[in-house]
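Hello,

Our lab assistant flagged a job as stuck in the queue for most of the afternoon. It eventually completed. Since we weren't sure the result was trustworthy after the delay, we are filing this so someone can double-check. Below is the sequence as submitted and the structure that was eventually returned. Let us know if re-running is recommended.
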Amino acid sequence: MHPLNLPEDLRTRVTERMGRDHAYDQLDPAKTALVVVDMQNYFVAPGAPAACDHGPAIAPNINRLAETLRDKGGHVYWIQTEALPEDASDWQNLYEMLGAKGKESRLAGLDSESELYDLWPEMDRREDDETVVKTRYSAMLENSSDLKRRLDEAGVDTVLITGVATNVCCEATARDSMMMGYRTVMVHDGMATFTDAQHNASLETFYMLFGDVQSTDEAVGYLDKASD
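-- returned structure --
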């Protein structure tokens, strides 16, 4: 998986501002949600159209976080992107950027009937977990999914972001989560993208001004501590 490489001067600046290493070092499991973004075959399976090479490696960390939250009364949401046929007209700006082949690939591969739409087989989704379908990069947008409504109904105030791609759908969801008032953590070894540089650039900006960046071990430790 991607190594974390936040500049030391950034760590120092943020730590001095907060007086601690992590903004959210107290996690109440009952008010915490794990949001797993797009761990679908289209984005994870080797050779798939938008596969992140490190995607399969992060599956165990995501499953560990999910199990921890289930055991402690928290919440687990599996996000899946669906490309609706009408997106070809009402999200035209995206398809202009993707071009004809990209548009065809996305509409076919992220159709809910496609095997590429399904979760990567190593993901441990359980019956009591929730599944959320989104149609835009960010799962928090009202015209993308009903995730925000579900989080509010569950009394969630803290969101742990995992999945793919770090600098696309994970970052878009995480930034909007912070803007909507949730304490937001990007779990760096529970996310993947296409290069180490892209992964760390996304985390650097997020850690500086949007929220927290933690490892799986750190997040699990804070959840365990709250239960002691």
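-- support follow-up --
The delay was a queue issue, not a problem with the job. The result is valid. The domain at 8-227 is CATH 3.40.50.850 (Rossmann fold). Strands lie at 32-37, 75-81, 130-134, 158-164, 183-192, 212-214.
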